[in-house]
């Protein structure tokens, strides 16, 4: 016979005591013992483990519009520089966007300078693979100006569309013959 390969037991149900009787008896699970490290380790319960360099899975992916035309990727500020093996701007952008959407913690980048020597050892998995960066008041002011400009363009486009639709609908309806419907 061939020896069976054992698989890790990922079952989270309580173990059942196997007895000679036909009735199964439950096993009591004690979780409040002072030596229980699982209960005392808060990081283990808060943060799920993450795969190192998971951002690499996002390489080669790009957004497309409804006509399946590839949308030009955003340009990152010059202050954002990737770290790690084979990191590029598209992967970095995806990693930062993912970090912003999945975490409420501030995004600071990799704070340790040693991450450039060996990223697999010094990597902070809760931060995207980029060098530490600082957002200044000037950066915020410039971004606010850009947002205001884009909002103004959007408002103008919506008003033009509304005017075109109202002109089109008024030309499509037949002229009223003056009767009140009475």
TrEMBL record:
> Which ranges carry the Methyl-CpG binding protein 2/3 C-terminal domain?
69-158
Q: Which GO terms describe its biological process?
A: DNA methylation-dependent constitutive heterochromatin formation; negative regulation of transcription by RNA polymerase II
Domain of life where this protein originates: Eukaryota
Annotated segments matching region Disordered: 162-182
| Compositionally biased spans, kind Polar residues | 166-176
Membrane-spanning segments: none
Write the protein's name: Methyl-CpG binding domain protein 2
Its source organism is Leptobrachium leishanense
